[in-house]
């Protein structure tokens, strides 16, 4: 961790990085054991493009399928799910809720398993498991079968997102991670867009094989997940030290650039003490609250958007297609905001700005009653703000938590705490509140306003801690510490990204 021991200066704080770019460049070229030669033969920009083109498509496809398989129940509802299974409106909501209970309970254990196994073993296996469950949902015969399938879908999907966030932190520098997480998360909005188109087409299979349209939605999309999961054993790689698509010079260069930036190159042994460090860090709980206040509007929108649009006065087929534009806008804005955040090296201002756009959307939905077109515009504003903000919120702890086990635990804790908001959200859009959905829209608006408070508070906490470290007020922690020892994000040489 040689570069992290360099003296801190104000540039590091204002940029939100661990140290100034100029310092990194100098230290990179002064590294020993052959690093100088590697630096002269490896083009860093070309290497990043190689990593992006090799790692991100596979991971993004897995998350697209994950989000598709969890949210296609909203499309299936319009195609006869509740009628065929004799499910009441409240029972349907319970089915949505139980998914997140399974998700929350198994998220932290899944990331611990990832740390103790490997990405190539764990991520494809999880994907096969939820693909099987998603497919079986299509042959549910009653309410009990629907509940069981939803619960185990949550269990099997719980390890993917926090696992991938941790995985990317082992490949990319801190300031590069959030853009890649945003690219990965953008698959959620793509899933919403594709889900509407797929559902519209698959619904025309109604009657084929004696199955209704909703059953074919689950079966075909679940089978697609299984096929991709089997193939993913061959295109998911572990870590840079063993990745076969890298040359020796590239491996050495990645090791060097990560060593100067974060803890990814350290051979950290799993200990429960490092898990406890995450549990005892107030900042980790604030990251969790940051996602908690986003997950309710995120999942209520993804799970109820087709219903919201249909109840504005459109047919089921029209609602399936009209659910595409909000997600398409969200996809492009998620990428655009991530690029701007990476270039400016700030997170909090872009989260708060995006949340403000979503707030405008819900105000439109709450105040417009007789103009379906205007209300529909409100859904576009809501999606346009929710998805970019959520992407940055989810990337934040991966940038700021140091210590591999602590970071893996913190990523999982954030999703678990966050998805408790989704548990609440699944009970808000009740049939009797249609078409205005005052309670659902009002709670989403309230949660977004709370997010502004949480993110603003976390911004202030991190900035104050950075200022203390720059002034040397935390240097006493280094007493008795050798140059190669590292205290994780408690180390006064670590500067938090804002």
Describe this structure in words.
The structure is a single chain. The protein has 498 residues and is an all-alpha fold. The chain has 20 helices and no strands. The protein has helices at residues 10-15, 21-30, 35-41, 44-78, 81-84, 89-116, 119-137, 143-157, 160-169, 174-202, 213-235, 248-259, 272-279, 282-310, 316-322, 324-344, 348-367, 372-400, 404-425, 438-470. The radius of gyration is 23 Å and the shape is globular. Residues 1-36 have low confidence and may be disordered.
Note poorly predicted spans. 1-36
Number of helices: 20
Tell me what portion of residues adopts beta-strand conformation: under 5%
Structural class: mainly alpha
Relative helix content: over 70%
Concise synopsis of the structure shown:
Helices cover 74% and strands 0% of the residues. It has 498 residues and is mainly alpha-helical.
